[in-house]
Amino acid sequence: EKTMTDPKKKILLITTGGTIASVSTKDGLVPAGSEILAAEVERLRDYYDIEVCDLMRLDSSNIQPEEWVKIARCVFERRQGLDGIVITHGTDTMAYTSSILSFMLKNIDLPVVLTGAQLPMRNPISDAFDNLRTAFLMAASGRAGVFVAFDRRVMLGCRAVKVRAESFDAFESVNRRYAARVTTAGLVVDESVLPQRQGEPMLCD
Ligand code: ASP
Known about the structure:
The chain is of the alpha/beta class. The chain has helices at 38-44, 65-78, 94-104, 128-139, and strands spanning 9-17, 22-25, 28-31, 48-58, 84-88, 105-106, 111-115, 145-150, 153-156, 160-162, 171-173, 180-183, 186-189, 202-203. The strands form 4 sheets. An 8-stranded mixed sheet has the order 4-1-5-7-8-9-12-13, sandwiched between helices.
């Protein structure tokens, strides 16, 4: 149980665009930055010590290998002194980014949790709140590795696949149990699923 004397975990939020941080315009959804997530981030500051880095503002269909390198370097270079990192990302290619990051960030020594949403944060029925909260819980959990948090479940980054376009359970974990779930008891982690570190963290870019 959290007490008033627990120090807040230090979490870096990196934004890359995607529906979660987009604004609705007459020309459709336009990806923006952390200003779209600001109200929710403010609420989360009651529980976490949060730094924000707006890295890019892209629909994830425009995320290419150069962006993978940029994200991996940002994580690797900024990780010291942090407890965890949350990356917001469009859902269309999030599983590709989370897979490649699992290999680029070899033996990563903190949780790196990607999340996104089926609806923009500013939509009243958005899943963005829940997904961001699950991602922060996992990022503060002390479990190192690259993960995807979605629909109150956490999966290994290299096992996640987007399988649904219209429902909130957009991602599935292929041939591996979930790394964690959010229940009324909080974050329930399946330790047997977590990646085993085999040496010092290394950036393979
Ligand atoms: N087209 C968006 C993207 O992948 C879809 C989303 O975020 O759900 O950036």
